[in-house]
Amino acid sequence: MRVVVEVVHPADVLFFKRPIETLHARGDAVLVLSRKKDVACDLLDEFGIPHTPLTTAGSGTVGLARELVQRDFATLGAVRRFKPDVMAGFGGVAISHVGKLTRVPSVSFYDSENAALQTRITWPFISHLYVPRSYRGPTPVGRTTRLPGVKELSFFHPNGFRPNRETALRVGLDPDRPNYFVRIVEWRANHDLGKAGWTPDVLRAVIARLEASGVVHLSSELPLSDDLAQYAYKGPKNAVHHLIAACRAFVGESATMASEAAVLGVPALYAGRDFPGYTRELAETGLQWNVENASAGSLCAAIDEMLAVPQSDIVATRDRYLESCPDWSEAIIEALERHAKRPARSAT
Questions:
Q1: Origin, by domain of life (predicted)?
Q2: Domains in the chain, please, with CATH?
Q3: Which of 36, 104, 199, 243 would bridge 56 by S-S if both were Cys, CB 3.0 to 4.6 A apart?
């Protein structure tokens, strides 16, 4: 089987890493078409995944539109040369367009209802869509499959990911005090237009609250002022989740990283601008705290509430949650085999 995988965001690297390894191990040919967005290409390099960068993330409406045109044409050329049996992406805008033109099946996975523009230009063309069961947005009629759980269970399912404490220690874990991980984002994606994140004063208040009882590790897509730079995570990109897994809690405005922490059994507080169905499902399950219209006061109050719950209770809740969820890595492989033009090669 010949497979094109589209990677346009750092989270896509984690989502497709195990499926790519499975495909390679059984002798399938894989072409990864990447995008220079935050640390996406760095992660691919650190994981040793060969890839072809096609575009650099645009900025603003005009920049993103220009990039999409460039990416469509570059993807079309790559697909014509590689001749895949199936294509996969998270979101899958370019592969949906190119798949329609070339009659190569395109399979999209997605979980964010707030990306209305992206879905309007993707769903009419995609061959099949896979979403979490909690997804509340419109989907293609007759071309949608719903899966229990969250997309993070492709990389972080216990079948494939085991936190390594030695790695966490090498990248900054303090073994003698509680550790906290904080994440702030740039708000430049197509579904982020017109939105803004925490102010520097809100970030400082969150750090001060957490630092009062432990050590703070800060990950930021934005440049940091001198007083905040001292908290910056400086380890390899592909080691950060070993550190998060050893933390007492996660606090941030990244829905993806909050979800990652939650499935690792780490109490997660999410305070972004949009609350997709999976963020609400995790909150209802008891793995995540969601804070809307966040202020310094509301965030610190939510942190206190979250830290009042014993972490052992969170881990037990996570374990019960995972019992009802599939390994999404296996689901991705099954989806590719189901929709490929030619039958998959049998494993030997």
A1: Bacteria
A2: 2-151+327-339 (3.40.50.2000), 165-323 (3.40.50.2000)
A3: 36
Residue 59 pLDDT > 90? no
Measure the CA–CA gap between 72 and 96, rounded to whole angstroms: 9
Taking only the tens place, the pLDDT of each residue in 91-124 is: 999 999 999 999 999 999 999 998 888 999 999 9
Count the Cβ atoms, other than its own, within 10 Å of residue 293: 7
Query: Rounded to whole angstroms, how far apart are CA atoms 243 and 166?
Result: 9
Do residues 263 and 324 make contact, with C-beta atoms less than 8 angstroms apart?
no
Q: What pLDDT is stored for residue 192 in this prediction?
A: 40
Nearest alpha carbon to residue 53 among 68, 62, 40: 40
- Give CA–CA dist 10/189, Å, rounded: 12
CB 152 within 8 A of CB 134: no
pLDDT (0 to 100) of residue 344: 54
CB proximity list for 120: less than 8 A, separation 6 or greater:
none
Separation between Cα atoms, residue 165 and residue 225, nearest integer Å: 30
Question: Are the C-beta atoms of 281 and 134 separated by less than 8 Å?
Answer: yes
